[in-house]
Structures are given as C-alpha cells and as structure tokens.
Amino acid sequence: MLGNPLYEGPVFGEKLSGIEYGEKIGVYGITVDDKGKIAIIKNLTGYFLPGGGLEKGENHEECLRREFIEETGYEIEIENYIGTASLYHITKTGEYKKGIGHFYMVDLKADTGNKIEEDHELIWFEPKESVKCLFLEHQAWAVLKALKMEEKL
C-alpha cells in the first residue's frame, strides 16, 4: 500500500467535546501542469482536490486511480506520497465528521473519455489561488506541502 495509513499528520478544525465524529478516509492527488497550475475539481459544493473516499477493500492506489477516472476521465501515474492530515468538521447535512486525507503527487496521463461524474469540472488554478479556493483546510495544507516538496527537487 502506498503511504503510511497509520501515520496521522496535522489536525485541522475543532473537535467539540461530547460529540462523536464519524471517520471518512479519503485519498487525494495533487497535479501540477507544465505551467505550474494546480488541478482542482469544482462541483456544486465547492472546490476540492481530485480524489475521494476509500471504498471497502480498496488500497490508496486503487482509490486514487478510480477517483481520477470518475472525476476527470484521466488515467494517472502516482508519484510521491505527500502526507496525511485530518479535519474535524460538520457536513452540509449536519453530520460530524473527521476527514482523514492521504495525499499524493500525481501526473495526468491519457484522457480515457470515461468521466462519470458530470457535475465535476476540472479547473487549473495558480498555486496561491488554489490554496485560497479549496473548501477543506487539510487539502490546502497538502497543496502547500507539495509545493514545498517540489521546490526541493
């Protein structure tokens, strides 16, 4: 399995005492194009990194490949593991969730034309704008960490 699912990095949001939080584990990819722009998914809820929830029996790689096809139509090559971060939040439906995100650098490969989620639009943002627009704070953290890693290469 890619990454280290037992490691939990920074935690964002406020955990309210006396509240039970359901966990949602997700895997997300950060893609930088040849112009230095970041791939962001826009849907009816807001702006997010491509990726999503880990399904039963899936490993990180399988989840990330499936999510990229569903949301963008692209096959991917998974490069570096960026890290893991968590976010305590209340969903739009009023559920208390602890989102645990595992983040990877990803290269887009062939467009399969098999995009499934038609309400998901792939948009390319300048790095600073991508961090500002992301709906989830732990995803913004991952973009910043990825950009710092890229500078070291």
Molecular structure report:
The chain has 153 residues and is α/β, with parallel strands linked by helices. The chain has a five-stranded mixed sheet with strand order 1-6-7-2-5. Strands 4-3-8 form a three-stranded antiparallel sheet. Helix 2 runs antiparallel to helix 3 (137-152). The protein has helices at residues 60-72, 127-133, 137-152; strands at residues 11-12, 22-30, 38-42, 47-48, 51-53, 74-90, 96-111, 121-125. The protein starts with 10 loop residues before the first strand and ends with a helix. The model has no long low-confidence stretch (mean pLDDT 91). 24% of the residues lie in helices and 39% in strands. It has three helices and eight strands, in the order βββββαβββαα. The chain has one domain (11-152): Nucleoside Triphosphate Pyrophosphohydrolase, CATH 3.90.79. A hairpin with a 4-residue loop joins strand 3 and strand 4 (47-48). The longest helix is centred in the last third of the chain and has 16 residues, at 137-152.
